[in-house]
C-alpha cells in the first residue's frame, strides 16, 4: 500500500500551502528549556506523556532569510531555509512560525523571487520583497530529536522536537546557545496540543510567543524595525532650524552608511536606490534651507555631494533599464521577444562596468574624506550666537516658508505648461515636484498626519506622470545610443536592430499618451481642495514662539 | 475555486480497489504540491480508516452539506504533509440527500 511508504522523495520540487491553525496560534508552539532543567528531564517528561521517537537525533542547519530592510518580518512573515539533498527547503510562515503558509524546494543559491520555483511560495513573496535580494539574516545550527504523539489508533496527533541550538548571524560572531521544545500541531487535534502546552508550562518552560526567530533576534540584539530607508526623525516645531536640519541630514547620512556595503557588493539595486535618494534629499535640504548654515560651507558641500550624485548616476541608469527590461520585452510581439536578448546582455555588461567603477569610487580616499568631513560638520553643536538669519528661528516657521515657496513654484510653472511646451519645461517641473516631495517627507513630523498623507499622495500622482514622461524621453534617446554602441561593437544583428526600433516606437507612443495625460493630472493636483490644504498647512505667517 | 477536473474510479463490483485508488491519488497530488483534501462520503468510511482517523463529523455531515458549519471545523490533518481529510460520518440518511444534490456538495467545497 503506497500510503505506508515513508514520506516524500527528497529530490522533487513540491510545496504545500498553508494549514490554517489560527485557533492554535494564540498559544506558543516553541518553548525554551531553562538551563537548570535541562534536556534530559524534558525528554523523560515527554516520553512519560506517551511521546515516541520519530527519527534518530540529527543535525539541523536553519537559515532565516529576509531582505536588508526586513520586509517579510515587517509583514509578520518569516522565511526559513534548510538544506535538503542538493536543494534548500523553504518554509514560509507567520513570523512566530505558528502557521505554515507555503513550502517549496529551491536551488541552494536562489536569492531573488525570479530564481524561486513558480508556485504559491513565490507568489506570496513577490509582492512583499519585489526586486530585493534575500539575505541570510539569522542562522541556527544544532541537533534535533524528532518525537511524535499517537493516539490509540496509531494516528499521529502531534509532532514535537527537542532541540539543542546555537543562534548567530552570518556577519557577527556573537553566538547564543539554547535548548527548546518545538511543537508542530496536526490539524484537528487541538486537545492534545493544549495538554502538552499546559504540561510544558507547568514545568516552567518559557513559552516563546514570538517564536524562535523572535527570540533569536532579541538574543542577538537585532531590531528589524529600525531601518526603513526613510527619515524617521521626529522634529518639534520650536527646535532651532539649524539643529533640526542637522538632525535630518545626520539621519540621511545614516541611511547612506547603512547602504554603502550593499552598494559596493552590488547585492540588489535597492541599496543604490536608497543611497541615491539620501544623497539627493541631503542636497535638496542644503540648497533650500537658506541662511541656516554659513553660505561658503554649504556651497562646498553641495559641490562635493553633487559629485557623489554624479558618481552613482550611471549605475542607477543601467539598473533601471534592467529593471524595465521585462516590460520592454512584453511590449513586443511574443515572436520577436528573443531578438531583444542581446540588448539585455549589452545592458548587463554596461551595468557591471559602471558598478565596478562606482564600487571603486566608494572605496576611494576622496569618498572617505567627504564622508568624514560631512559627518564632522553634522556633529557640530549649533553656535550660541549666529548672524545667519534663519539659523536660530523655529524650524516650523522656516519649513513653512520653504515648502510654501517650493509649492508656489510648482504651481506657477505647472500652469504655464501648454500643449506645445518642450520636454525640458516638463523636466523642470518634475525637478520642482521632487524637491517639494522631499520637503514634505522630511518635515512630515511637524504637521498633522492625515492632510500630509493626502497631499503626498496627490503630489505622487503628478510626479508619476511627469516621471514617466521624462523617463520615456530619456529611454527613447538612450536606446538609440545603445543600438549604435552595439553596432560599433559588432553585436547588432538586423533582427535585434528591428526589435529595438519597434520598442522605441512603442515607447514614443506611450510618451505621447503620457503627455496628453499631463493637463488632467495637473488640473487635479491644482484642485481647490489641494490648494486650500497647502495654504492652510504652510502659508501661515511665522508666529513668534513665546 | 477555479475549474475542477473530475476523475472517477468506478466498478460495479465491490472490493476491487476504488477507495485505495482514490486515496493514493490524493497522496500523490499532495506530494506534488497540490493542497489536497479527501472528503470521505462513503458511509462505510473506508478512506477514513486508511488514515486511522475516527469516522466522526461535528454536527454530522448533513450540517456540512447544508453549510450550517464551516468545513475547516471538520478537517483533520493526516500523517502526510499537505493532505487533509474530512472524515466519514455514519449517519446514512445523509447519503440519499447528498447524492441527489451535487450542487450542495460543490457549495460546501468552496468554503474550504
Ligand atoms: N492494488 C492493490 N493491491 C493489493 N490489494 C489492494 C489493492 N487495491 C486495494 N487492495 C485491497 O483490497 C481491499 C478492497 O479495496 P478498497 O476498499 O479500495 O475497494 P473498494 O472498491 O473501494 O471497495 P468497496 O466496494 O467496498 O468500496 C482492501 O483491503 C485493499 O487494501
Ligand atoms: Mg470503497
Tags for this model:
heterodimer; A: 546 residues; alpha+beta; Hypothetical Protein Pfu-838710-001; CHAD domain; 2 domains; 16 helices; disordered N terminus; B: 112 residues; three-stranded mixed sheet; 5 helices; binds adenosine-5'-triphosphate; binds magnesium ion
Give a topology summary.
The complex is a heterodimer of chains A (546) and B (112).
Chain A: H1 22-25, E1 30-32, H2 39-48, E2 52-53, E3 58-66, H3 71-74, E4 77-84, E5 87-94, E6 100-106, H4 120-129, E7 135-150, E8 156-168, E9 176-185, H5 190-202, E10 206-207, H6 211-220, H7 241-265, H8 269-288, H9 295-331, H10 341-362, H11 365-379, H12 395-415, H13 423-442, H14 449-488, H15 494-525, H16 528-538
Antiparallel strand pairs in A: 1-9, 1-10, 2-7, 3-4, 3-7, 4-5, 5-6, 7-8, 8-9
Helix pairs in contact in A: 7-8, 7-10, 7-11, 7-12, 8-9, 9-10, 12-13, 12-16, 13-14, 14-15
Chain B: H1 18-31, E1 36-39, H2 46-50, H3 60-65, E2 76-77, E3 83-86, H4 93-99, H5 102-109
Parallel strand pairs in B: 1-3
Antiparallel strand pairs in B: 2-3
The complex binds adenosine-5'-triphosphate and magnesium ion.
Describe this structure in words.
The complex is a heterodimer of chains A (546) and B (112). In chain A, strands 1, 2, 3, 4, 5, 6, 7, 8, 9 and 10 form a 10-stranded antiparallel beta sheet that branches. Chain A has helices spanning 22-25, 39-48, 71-74, 120-129, 190-202, 211-220, 241-265, 269-288, 295-331, 341-362, 365-379, 395-415, 423-442, 449-488, 494-525, 528-538; strands spanning 30-32, 52-53, 58-66, 77-84, 87-94, 100-106, 135-150, 156-168, 176-185, 206-207. Chain A is of the alpha+beta class and 546 residues long. Chain A is 54% helix and 14% strand. By secondary structure, chain B is α+β, with helices and mostly antiparallel strands. Chain B has a domain at 37-109. In chain B, strands 1-3-2 form a 3-stranded mixed beta sheet. The A-B interface holds A 1-3, 7-9, 12-17, 19-20, 103-104, 119-120, 153-156, 185-189 and B 20, 23-24, 27-28, 30-33, 35, 50-54, 72, 74-77, 79-82, 84. Residues 14-20, 46 of chain B line the site of adenosine-5'-triphosphate.
Amino acid at each position: 500500500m503506497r500510503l505506508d511508504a515513508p514520506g516524500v522523495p527528497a529530490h522533487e520540487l513540491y510545496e504545500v500551502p498553508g494549514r490554517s491553525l489560527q485557533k492554535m496560534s494564540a498559544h506558543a508552539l516553541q518553548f525554551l528549556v531553562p538551563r537548570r532543567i535541562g534536556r534530559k528531564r524534558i525528554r523523560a517528561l515527554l516520553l512519560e506523556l506517551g511521546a515516541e521517537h520519530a527519527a534518530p537525533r540529527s543535525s539541523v542547519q536553519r537559515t532565516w532569510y529576509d531582505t536588508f530592510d526586513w520586509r517579510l518580518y515587517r509583514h509578520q512573515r518569516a522565511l526559513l531555509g534548510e538544506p535538503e539533498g542538493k536543494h534548500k527547503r523553504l518554509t514560509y510562515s507567520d513570523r512566530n512560525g505558528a502557521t505554515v503558509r507555503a513550502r517549496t524546494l529551491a536551488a541552494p543559491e536562489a536569492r531573488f523571487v525570479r530564481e524561486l520555483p513558480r508556485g504559491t511560495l513565490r507568489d506570496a513573496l513577490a509582492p512583499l520583497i519585489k526586486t530585493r535580494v534575500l539575505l541570510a539574516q539569522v542562522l541556527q545550527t544544532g541537533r534535533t530529536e524528532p518525537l511524535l504523539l499517537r493516539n490509540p489508533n496509531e494516528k499521529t496527533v502531534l509532532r514535537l522536537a527537542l532541540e539543542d541550538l546555537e543562534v548567530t548571524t552570518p556577519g557577527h560572531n556573537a553566538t547564543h546557545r539554547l535548548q527548546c521544545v518545538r511543537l508542530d500541531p496536526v490539524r484537528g487535534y487541538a486537545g492534545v496540543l493544549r495538554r502538552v502546552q499546559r504540561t510544558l508550562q507547568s514545568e516552567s518552560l518559557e513559552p516563546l510567543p514570538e517564536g524562535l526567530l523572535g527570540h533569536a533576534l532579541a538574543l542577538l540584539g537585532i531590531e528589524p524595525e529600525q531601518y526603513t530607508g526613510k527619515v524617521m526623525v521626529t522634529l518639534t516645531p520650536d527646535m532651532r532650524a539649524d539643529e533640526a536640519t542637522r538632525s535630518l541630514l545626520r539621519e540621511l547620512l545614516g541611511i547612506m552608511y547603512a547602504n554603502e556595503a550593499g552598494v559596493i557588493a552590488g547585492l540588489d539595486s535597492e541599496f543604490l536606490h536608497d543611497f541615491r535618494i539620501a544623497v539627493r534629499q541631503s542636497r535638496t535640504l542644503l540648497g533650500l534651507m537658506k541662511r541656516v548654515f554659513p553660505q561658503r560651507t554649504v556651497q562646498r558641500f553641495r559641490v562635493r555631494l553633487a559629485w557623489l550624485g554624479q558618481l552613482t548616476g550611471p549605475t542607477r541608469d543601467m539598473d533601471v533599464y534592467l529593471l524595465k527590461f521585462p516590460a520592454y520585452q512584453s511590449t513586443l510581439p511574443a515572436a520577436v521577444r528573443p531578438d531583444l536578448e542581446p540588448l539585455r546582455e549589452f545592458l548587463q555588461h554596461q551595468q557591471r562596468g559602471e558598478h565596478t567603477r562606482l564600487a571603486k569610487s566608494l572605496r576611494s580616499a576622496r569618498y572617505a574624506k567627504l564622508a568624514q568631513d560631512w559627518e564632522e560638520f553634522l556633529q557640530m553643536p549649533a553656535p550660541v550666537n549666529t548672524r545667519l538669519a534663519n539659523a536660530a528661528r523655529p524650524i516650523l516657521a522656516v519649513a513653512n516658508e520653504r515648502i510654501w515657496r517650493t509649492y508656489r513654484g510648482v504651481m506657477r510653472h505647472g500652469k504655464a505648461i501648454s500643449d506645445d511646451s518642450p520636454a525640458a519645461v516638463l523636466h523642470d517641473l518634475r525637478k520642482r515636484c521632487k524637491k517639494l516631495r522631499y520637503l514634505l517627507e522630511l518635515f512630515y513630523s511637524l504637521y498633522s498626519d492625515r492632510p500630509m498623507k493626502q497631499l503626498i499622495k496627490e503630489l505622487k500622482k503628478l510626479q508619476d506622470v511627469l516621471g514617466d514622461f521624462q523617463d520615456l524621453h530619456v529611454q527613447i534617446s538612450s536606446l538609440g545610443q545603445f543600438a549604435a554602441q552595439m553596432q560599433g561593437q559588432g553585436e547588432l544583428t538586423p533582427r535585434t536592430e528591428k526589435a529595438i526600433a519597434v520598442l522605441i516606437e512603442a515607447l514614443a507612443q506611450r510618451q505621447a499618451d503620457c503627455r496628453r495625460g499631463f493637463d488632467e493630472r495637473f488640473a487635479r493636483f491644482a484642485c481647490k481642495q489641494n490648494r486650500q490644504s497647502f495654504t492652510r498647512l504652510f502659508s501661515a505667517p511665522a508666529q513668534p514662539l513665546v | 475555486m477555479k475549474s475542477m477536473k473530475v476523475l472517477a474510479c468506478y466498478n460495479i463490483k465491490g472490493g476491487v480497489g476504488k477507495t485505495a485508488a482514490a486515496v493514493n491519488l490524493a497522496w500523490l497530488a499532495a506530494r506534488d504540491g497540490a493542497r489536497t483534501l479527501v472528503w470521505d462520503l462513503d458511509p462505510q468510511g473506508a478512506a477514513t480508516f486508511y488514515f486511522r482517523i475516527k469516522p466522526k463529523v461535528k454536527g454530522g455531515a448533513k450540517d456540512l452539506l447544508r453549510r450550517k458549519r464551516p468545513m475547516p471545523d471538520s478537517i483533520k490533518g493526516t500523517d502526510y504533509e499537505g493532505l487533509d481529510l474530512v472524515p466519514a460520518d455514519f449517519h446514512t440518511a445523509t447519503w440519499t440527500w447528498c447524492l441527489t444534490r451535487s450542487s450542495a456538495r460543490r457549495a460546501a467545497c468552496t468554503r474550504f
